[in-house]
Amino acid sequence: MDRFLITACLVLIGLLGPISMTARAQPQAAPVVAAIPDAEIPIRRKLFDTIKASVDARDFDTLSAMEERFRLTRSRTPSGVWELDLFYQALDGYLSEGLRAGQNCKAEKANFVDQWQTEHPNNPAPVIVQAKLLEWTAWCYRDASSLNVDWDHFYKTLTRASTLLERHKAMASRDPEYYAVAASIYRGLGVTGEAYQAFLDEATEREPAYLRTYSSAFWSFMPQWGGSAEEMESFARYAMDKARATEGTGMYVRLLWQMDSCDCQLIQQVSRWSVLRQSMLDVYSRFPVERNRRFFERASCQKRQLEEARHYVGLAHPENDWLQNTLLTSDICEQVWKEERE
Fold it and tell me: Which residues form the signal peptide (predicted)?
């Protein structure tokens, strides 16, 4: 679809039924709050730098204090991402060094985690991270590029990780990351069906608004693990319903966004537009920042919803008139579709 046709479609929409600012203020309508300039990157960079410095200095007091503060306050970045989520993202990157088949699957930071657990036995984080290291080691043994998969080490190491979590469950499950890690380990061990669903129900009862639990479990419903597009969409709605008390319908788009890095075209091929649209509205109404606006603009283009895309374009360019933003939407969506074709 070229720029002329896109523009013509948008103009026709406007001529047949222009959407006034008053209409947009009604329930279920798109918000008109202009996007707040993005402070997300500096906040993330500062947090990651603090964690790296603490890891390098073996400053276990600071790391444990960060975990406890983020967990108890459930603090978020301007875009609505949990700082506890970012805390573990950072640790994942810093502590997984060396876990490659060509390096004998030895975690270089294993002693660091052991010392952290010794000095802070009542903090959930070192137990959770130790279980992660065991899981990563198991998957290193099962290196997909190897013709000789070490299945014995794979299952034994995953079982060790599961046993570790179970042994410390009373203390470590205070942190929702416990369940995010367990969801991945159980998938590797082949836990499915009613047993896996019972685990998910327990996890989301303890903390229904923690995205990483859902994103970790989501893989179990993907085709490579025996799932399907229908099962993925159904699980996204399960996550949405579980988190509704605090997130509205927002967990639906957050989960699909989180998983979009798999290059699986989840927005285009899995999401339901009516649910996705409302989910984007719910997130943006609470967190009207540029990072969210950009993704929702892109998602609208991916779903070929040009008027919705034009709305999110307009939030970034309130100085433009309707036609200017229509032309800009045409250019933006055309670029999105070009990337899809490549």
Answer: 1-25
